[in-house]
Design goal:
By secondary structure, the protein is mainly α. 75% of the residues lie in helices and 0% in strands. The radius of gyration is 21 Å and the shape is globular.
Length: 428
């Protein structure tokens, strides 16, 4: 634990942090990380790529390849820079300092998204371009902050505490996201005309995300011990990827599993567009879908956290893959006029992704030696970042044929992912 002179002040929120520390016997970093998760969960609901952002782009008559690009931007922009970030920040004693700097860019980009819906309300194509540029900026800045976030968590939260830490973040964050779903349902069902209904949704998302960034910046992270040397060339880690993979068989299997899982999401971006365009679901149902997910996801997070403590991350990942496989299968089976029943697609997706996220984070932090943690995180995330752009191919295929072959390919890829996940180390 760092000394108190290095502890950032929470200002008016100091009593809140102290109350959480005392009430639950949490460390300051634990409390800051939990608050970060709660507020960012709300932000994720307001700016959900597969539901909210895709419905916004669909309302702007964006082609399917743009719809496929949205989750690719959100996830790929977060993953791709991390091999360079790993080298660039390795020598910085407290990684949370990098997180704070990147958060300023992230909040500014979110503010730009809000403003674009106001300034270009009469120019939808310009609005779409401005929206995409700001989304890319936010995602890349998120990529810069992602590795420092995980490094900071790895330093401040013990391996024994991490399942409970992630479970607490996800459980209560999911309940708060449920409230965001009700807000979105009310906004989209109000008299606000497009795009000003989305202006309000994006504004709430920008505010909640910014609070989340702020709270994690209050983490009481100790400096690296021993100090890490400064990388002479940020390209070294990229060039060393083959050697990094060759030196650790367990890590190779993990990376292959992650790449296949990312490729399997080829159809996820089109669930909402399929519901709106082919299943005759109304726009107001978007909020309902988020509400249903908001109810189910927190419950699943609580179960995932208990299962992770009892059985380890490998089993969690395998079970979760069964749920993610069901999402494209259910989308294929939904008849026209299915209405609210289409929410089952999002339930399967949300439950599966919650387990995957918890399992992946805990597995990698347990697998990586402390001195290689940054390199393992950067290597895996950068390689996976390439695969997350498969929804663009899915969008092209959907434009040429339909959504049906895209969902079939997705289900097949999820099956292949499961076959690889069986080979993950049993004791993690």
């Amino acid at each position: 634990m760092s000394d108190l002179s290095n502890r950032p002040s929470a200002g008016v929120f100091e009593p809140l942090l102290q109350a959480l520390e005392q009430r639950f016997s949490w460390s300051r970093s634990y409390a800051a990380g939990v608050l970060n998760g709660w507020f960012c969960s709300m932000g994720d609901a307001f700016l959900n790529p597969g539901i909210v952002l895709s419905s916004f782009a669909a309302a702007l008559a964006a082609p399917n390849w743009i719809l496929g690009l949205l989750p690719a931007i959100a996830v790929g922009g977060w993953l791709l820079p991390q091999i360079f970030v790993s080298a660039a920040v390795r020598h910085i004693p407290r990684k949370v300092d990098v997180y704070r700097a990147a958060s300023l860019v992230r909040s500014s980009a979110l503010a730009t998204i809000v403003l674009s819906t106001i300034l270009f309300a009469q120019a939808p194509q310009v609005m779409l371009i401005a929206f995409l540029i700001a989304l890319i900026a936010n995602s890349l800045a998120s990529g810069v902050s992602g590795l420092p976030w995980l490094e900071s968590v790895g330093k401040t939260i013990s391996a024994q505490e991490r399942p409970r830490f992630f479970g607490t973040r996800n459980l209560w964050g999911g309940l708060l996201a449920l409230g965001a779903g009700f807000a979105i349902k009310a906004i989209l069902g109000s008299s606000l005309v497009f795009p000003f209904d989305y202006t309000l949704i994006f504004l709430f998302g920008a505010i909640t995300f910014s609070f989340g960034y702020y709270f994690f910046g209050l983490s009481d992270e100790p400096p690296d011990n021993p100090p890490q040397p400064k990388a002479l060339n940020i390209w070294d880690d990229l060039l060393a990827i083959p050697q990094t993979l060759a030196a650790n068989a367990d890590f190779r299997v993990y990376v292959l599993y992650r790449i296949l899982f990312a490729a399997s999401t080829i159809g996820d971006a089109f669930f909402t567009a399929h519901a709106l365009r082919n299943v005759a679901v109304g726009k107001e149902a978007i909020g309902t879908f988020l509400i249903v997910v908001g109810i189910i996801a927190p419950l699943s997070n609580a179960i995932w956290a208990k299962l992770a403590r009892a059985y380890g991350s490998r089993r969690i990942i395998r079970i979760a893959l069964g749920f993610t496989f069901m999402a494209p299968v259910l989308a294929l089976l939904m008849p026209k006029g299915a209405g609210i029943a289409f929410a089952l697609v999002y339930v399967a997706q949300a439950v599966g992704n919650a387990g995957i996220m918890l399992g992946n984070a805990n597995y990698l932090l347990s697998l990586a030696p402390p001195e290689l943690r940054g390199k393992f995180i950067g290597t895996s995330n950068t390689l996976v970042g390439i695969a997350v752009f498969t929804p663009i191919i899915g969008g092209w295929l959907a434009d040429k044929v339909s959504y049906i072959p895209v969902f079939i390919i997705s289900a097949v890829l999820y099956s292949l992912t499961f076959a690889v996940a069986v080979r993950l180390r049993r004791d993690l």
